[in-house]
Write a structure and sequence with these properties.
Strand content: 15-25%
CATH class of the largest domain: Alpha Beta
Radius of gyration: 17 Å
Number of helices: 7
Order of helices and strands: EEEHEHEEHHEEHEHH
Number of domains: 2
Length: 223
């Protein structure tokens, strides 16, 4: 089902959305999604894992990051700091007992909660990949762009990357952000089997990966 949670943002208070399997049970897992297009590519796999966890007696919550999906907040006004605050508020609102951070979600998840990080990514890596994709797309269109110049522009003015209008604060934050996952269980892609869904061009289901992820979480919860 779709749940709402209150979240202040740069433009004031807003109601954000989350996919929720909530039956009021004692184990309550907040899933912080990957960033940018990686979130779209991995969403179906995560939702399938949520269904399996629901069947096993675990409540799960997958909130939208402010500015993404159905959010009414402006994406260009977002920052890593704002996303961290939002995920902390989501954890409190849903009374989360554990957290799963996915890829770039490990840059903004509430790390005071125990839990897991699936292939956590550095902010600089995400930013570099997006800038590289823009340079390649521009070259194919007959336009020459320089990665260093684009990064400098992004720091000062913001930058459009893969269709995302990233503000200067978000670009600067990504450049130096490291996942804070000390004390959390790291999940490697090899533990799920197959290739990383974030590398695919289009979203896809991966039932074997969903099942493996649910098993890993259940084994940790029950330990």
């Amino acid at each position: 089902m779709i749940a709402q949670w209150p979240c202040p943002g740069p433009g004031g208070q807003s109601e954000e959305y989350a996919l929720a399997y909530d039956r009021g049970r004692s184990r309550r897992l907040l899933i912080v999604p990957a960033l940018f297009d990686e979130a779209n590519r991995m969403r179906r796999m995560l939702v399938d894992a949520m269904r399996m966890l629901d069947d096993a007696g675990v409540d799960t919550f997958l909130p939208d990051l402010p500015g993404c999906n159905e959010s009414l907040q402006r994406f260009e006004a977002q920052s890593l700091h704002g996303w961290r605050s939002a995920m902390q508020l989501a954890a409190q609102h849903f009374s989360a007992t554990e957290v799963l951070a996915v890829r770039g979600g490990a840059l903004v998840f509430p790390n005071a909660l125990p839990g897991w990080a699936l292939e956590p990514a550095k902010g600089a890596t995400i930013l570099r990949q997006m800038i590289r994709a823009r340079v390649i797309a521009s070259r194919e269109a007959g336009i020459q762009e320089d990665s260093a110049a684009l990064l400098e522009q992004g720091r000062n003015e913001g930058l459009e990357l893969a269709g995302w209008h990233c503000g200067a604060s978000l670009v600067a934050g990504l450049e130096n952000a490291l996942p804070q996952v000390e004390g959390h269980h790291l999940i490697a892609q090899s533990q799920l089997g197959g290739g990383g869904l974030w590398l695919r061009a289009e979203p896809a289901a991966a039932p074997e990966q969903s099942a493996a992820l649910a098993r890993l979480i259940l084994s940790g919860i029950d330990a």
